[in-house]
Amino acid sequence: ALIGSVSTDGHVDDPNSAIPGTQIxxxxxxxxxxxxxxxxxxxxxxxxxxNRLRVDMWEVNRSAVATPSSDIVYGNIVLTPADQVESSFxxxxxxxxxxxxxxxxxxxxxxxxIGAHGIxxxxxxxxxxxxxxxxxxxxxxxxxxxxDGTWLISERFSFNARAQYLSLNFNSxxxxxGDYHADVQFRWRxxxxxxxxxxxxxxxxxxxxKNPNGDITFNTHGAELFVRASF
Length: 231
Fold this sequence. Notes:
Layout: E1 2-13, E2 24-25, H1 26-30, E3 35-38, E4 41-47, E5 51-66, E6 72-74, E7 77-79, E8 85-104, E9 108-127, E10 132-152, E11 157-170, E12 173-189, E13 192-207, E14 213-229
Antiparallel strand pairs: 1-2, 1-3, 1-14, 4-5, 5-8, 6-7, 8-9, 9-10, 10-11, 11-12, 12-13, 13-14
């Protein structure tokens, strides 16, 4: 269970216009909730002694109706303080990460590897009264470098942390992805543990070869409470 917050910032541009899109916060200007309270599932496959494969799938979907405080250029439309704007922003992410334990002892383990990520961000703005509509989609594959470590504090307690990051260009677009996690686990039974942790994800997608173009930054962070079952 993730109990956290989200922020979404950026601009959407019409490539046929000399006027750039307005830099906005979707939460402040368009009324999307900054709160994220959701359940998540993570699966880790232990491949022999030193290889681990971790799979995560999650999404954040939000919508709202709000009135902007000032004019907003969004692609090829202009949203004004007189408009009731119906907004939505959906973020979907699939992560597959492989690590190899380069260091492994009785009380510690440190792995390094690579991650493959599929990311899609969809934004949609509509003013029904004036028949205005504009949408933006930024999607693409990402790869990251990964570190994953565990330290056995005592027989029942362990500290676990991981970090992934990379910035790259693809098909004249570019993106940045960073994912960070740390937790403390209490092993109640040999195959059952409870944990509390902190998760932070930072992603930026820049689209230059579509209509409209855009530059979107999406951040989530917050506390996690979880149960881990091992088989």
